[in-house]
Amino acid sequence: MFGVFERMVAWRYLRPRKQEGFISVIAGFSLLGICLGVATLIIVMSVMNGFRQELLGRILGVNGHLTVYSATGTIENYEAIDTTLEDITGILSATPQVRGQVMVTGARGGATGALVRGVSKEELKARAIIADNITSGSIDDMEEKDGLVVGERLANGLGLRVGDEIKLVSPQGNTTVIGTVPRIKTYRIAALFNVGMYEYDSGFIYMPLEAAQVFFRTPGAVTAIEVFVESPDAVYLQRAQIGNILGPQFRTQDWQQSNSSFFNALQVERNVMFLILTLIILVAAFNIISGQIMLVKDKGRDIAILRTMGATRSMILRVFLLSGASIGIAGTLGGLLLGVVFTANIKTIQGWVEAIAGTKVFNPEIYFLTTLPAVVDWGEVVAVVLMALLLTFLATVYPAWRAARLDPVEALRYE
After folding, report:
1. How many angstroms separate the CA atoms of 341 and 43, rounded?
2. Most Cβ neighbours (<10 Å): which of 61, 122, 130, 397?
3. Within 13 Å and on the Cβ side, how many CA atoms surround 386?
4. 83 near 227, Cβ under 8 Å?
């Protein structure tokens, strides 16, 4: 498409000269703007992808894909229902649980709220996100009566460690002649876990199923059955089957319903960030337009001489197309390299920034996660690169067309 003549002249026009210093500055800023715009877009999209993926993995790992509840509050024949659910195609497992909220106090003082989930020791060991993130103690020490697996941040907040006693206060108190008295029971911490999500590490406690049934007064029954499926994105298929099999006395809630507002807000934020950062590339493209128009104005005499020597309008058009597009291509490739390298080393860079600033730039209490995640979606990267190249190419069309339409007679009249 571009001959030797067009490439030679375009390269000559790209090399700065003293009398063209201002034009060169504009071209340099245009290249830098496109580079930073593409890099920033890749980095931000990767962080948003990683943030969503990490949250989704932890939320689904801890909570399951689908939860079955009873309209009466408790599920009596949960073992039979558990077997029925696991026979449904696409369901990997079903875990009976007793759930309840409590007030937690430690021997050294302090109190906080927590969510207790009563599960069997075998079911908890099979849940990889908990079993693989035990920081101290062991799930095997979880006894049927007094062994608890507690979130590490919750224990640290109360000044507790493995082996210490912890008191749980139930809002469902005992009724006496003097009124309702809160039900308090002391347990022992068998293990601490840290899944890397602040909400769970600071507010979840796992208790043996039998002990939970006693503490929450649901003997021989559970309050929920958590279900894991093969394809979380298609959980509605299993939800429909469960509804048909169990009937109207049971209700189901999948992960999309439980977290719809959160993930919808995350998607809106992601789209807005993409739009805002695209404006950086658009501004750089306008800089290319202004720089190329100034270049055409400055090279009017050269263009006229080339035309009189036999250069066609299409040749002049291709010269300036190549000149402007080269800035966009170089900036896009530089931004691609910078964005991918930055994303691959984002945790190291985060550590450097925190060490220099002396503060955390990614507070887990605000952002839910303890580390800054980043996942490169190569489909998005290709889309960003193509968009940047398209914008920069379009930015060169008008200046190149203007150069091609230049009349040699008018350009040389006052020379």
Report:
1. 9
2. 130
3. 6
4. no
Distance CA 297, CA 127 (A): 69
Whether residue 410 has pLDDT greater than 80: no
> What average pLDDT does the segment 266-273 reach?
82
Considering only CA atoms, which of 4, 6, 15 is closest in space to residue 321? 6
Between CA 326 and CA 392 the distance in angstroms is 9
Please give the DSSP secondary-structure letter assigned to residue 236: H
- C-alpha closest to that of 71 among 216, 243, 261, 256: 243
Output the pLDDT for position 346: 83
**Tokens 């799930």 belong to residue:** 139
Mean pLDDT of 68-76: 87
Amino acid making up residue 64: G
Phi, psi of 4 (to 5 degrees): -60, -40
Structure tokens that stand for 175 in this block: 């009724």
**CA triplet 317, 320, 325: central angle to 5 degrees?**
120
Six token digits for residue 237: 């298929």
Question: How confident is the model over 304-321, as pLDDT tens digits?
Answer: 777 777 777 777 777 778
Cα 230 to Cα 49, 93, 130, 400, distances in angstroms: 22, 9, 19, 56
Residue bearing the bigger pLDDT, 172 or 40? 40
Residue 74 has pLDDT above 90, yes or no: no
Name the DSSP letter for residue 259: T
Identify whether the C-beta of residue 51 lies closer than 8 Å to the C-beta of residue 346.
Answer: no
- Contact partners, residue 202, CB within 8 Å, separation at least 6: 112, 151, 153, 154, 157
Pick from 51-55, 93-97, 284-288, 307-311: least confident: 307-311
- Please check whether residue 396 is in contact with residue 323, taking contact to mean a CB–CB distance below 8 angstroms: yes
**Contact between residue 234 and residue 240 where contact means Cβ atoms under 8 Å apart:** no
Coil, helix or strand for 185?
strand
Burial of 325 (0-12, 13-18, 19+ CB in 10 A): buried
Helices (H), 345-372: 346-357, 364-367
